[in-house]
Write a structure and sequence with these properties.
Blueprint (H helix, E strand, L loop, with lengths): L6 E2 L6 E2 L22 E3 L4 E3 L9 E3 L8 H4 L2 H6 L7 H7 L6 H14 L3 H7 L11 E4 L2 E2 L4 H16 L12 E4 L5 E6 L12 H4 L18 H7 L2 H14 L4 E6 L7 H12 L6 E6 L1 H6 L6 H9 L13
Helix pairs in contact: 8-10
This protein binds zinc ion.
The site of zinc ion has 8 residues, from loops.
């Protein structure tokens, strides 16, 4: 007997029965991609995660099935060169999930780069000044605006991470880096329907990024090291430190895009993190909702509007089931 219940395909309305496994086990096989889904609508190219939840996550046969061809271009190459070597495989696999933060990040920025809309968007959101040029763009540390400047920036960030003592195969990977030259440097940490990742961290683990001996320097990244550690927001701590290193005297902003303002533990952690930073008008931490971000994109094409709805980017409730 199949373990998983039947489903109705959200695209065509057909009823989908779960395939039987050779040896039914007490658990269900992990979903590692479309091929491993026990329930699929082959006609639509939709798979469904092997979860008992009533609305399991949709896994696409082709992650780019609903976007124009130019969006998919180069994606495999960029993912395979992502800075964090150990997470490259997982990133590729997760790309097919409807819940993929990485896929949304890729699609948005590939579109914004191709249409040269980033500087206007960033100015509208108050991230940079009106006179900022179109930026050099790196996703996961890899350039998607092929030019000499971008290759230089790739090298510069790697050198910064090396100088901080990161291991070469497990490097920090800011999701989005926008380099506007003298108009500023921007890092974006992207969240889709979820709070920031947090974990209990120790002083030892963060010592690469939080150096207490810096405390007397006026340009130090953190004003309260204890609060930074207590926040447990390891990704944001790393990004803030790396941003400060790389920006030098230029204006700098760390943007937390799409993070849900949810009362409780997540909110407390974020508050602690914000209080730990030595922020100045030149060096800011900004929280921007997807609603504001998408609202600031001028003249959205139909496919993009559809994509925003299909992926639930404006959904404030959080994912229905665990990834
Ligand atoms: Zn279907």
């Amino acid at each position: 007997m199949p373990i998983l219940g039947e489903l109705v395909c959200p695209s065509c309305g057909d009823t989908i029965q779960a395939m039987e496994w050779n040896r039914p086990l007490d658990g269900t096989p992990a979903t590692t991609g479309y091929d491993s889904c026990a329930r699929k609508c082959v006609g639509c190219g939709f798979g469904f995660s092997n979860s008992q939840a009533t609305t399991p996550t949709v896994i696409y046969r082709d992650p780019f099935w609903d976007v124009p061809e130019f969006i998919a271009r180069e994606s495999e190459d960029v993912v395979r060169r992502a800075l964090n070597v150990v997470s490259r495989g997982k990133k590729e696999q997760r790309f097919a999930s409807r819940n993929s933060e990485d896929h949304v990040t890729w699609t948005m920025f590939q579109y914004l780069v191709a249409t040269r809309k980033i500087s206007a968007l960033a100015a509208r959101l108050g991230i940079v000044t009106d006179d900022a040029p179109e930026p050099t763009v790196l996703l996961w540390g890899v350039s998607i605006t092929p030019c000499e400047l971008a290759r230089e920036l790739e090298k510069r960030i790697q050198a910064t991470l090396d100088a901080l003592g990161e291991r070469a195969y497990r490097r920090s990977e800011p999701a989005v880096i926008l380099d506007f030259g003298m108009a500023g440097l921007v890092f974006i940490e992207v969240k889709l329907r979820s709070p920031n990742n947090s974990e209990d961290i120790t002083e030892e683990r963060t010592s690469r990024y939080i150096d207490r001996s810096d405390d007397k320097q006026s340009s130090r990244p953190f004003v309260n090291s204890d609060k930074a550690i207590q926040s447990g927001l390891y990704e944001l701590i790393r990004n803030w430190r790396i941003l400060c290193e790389l920006a030098n005297d230029r204006p700098a902003a760390l943007v937390n895009l799409g993070v849900l303002a949810r009362a409780g533990e997540a909110e407390e952690r974020l508050k602690k993190f914000e209080e730990s930073l030595l922020a100045t008008p030149q060096r800011r931490f900004l929280k921007i909702s997807w609603r504001d971000f998408i609202g600031a994109i001028a003249h959205k094409p139909l496919w993009l509007s559809r994509y925003i709805v299909d992926r639930g980017i404006l959904d404030q409730k959080g994912p229905a089931v665990a990834k």
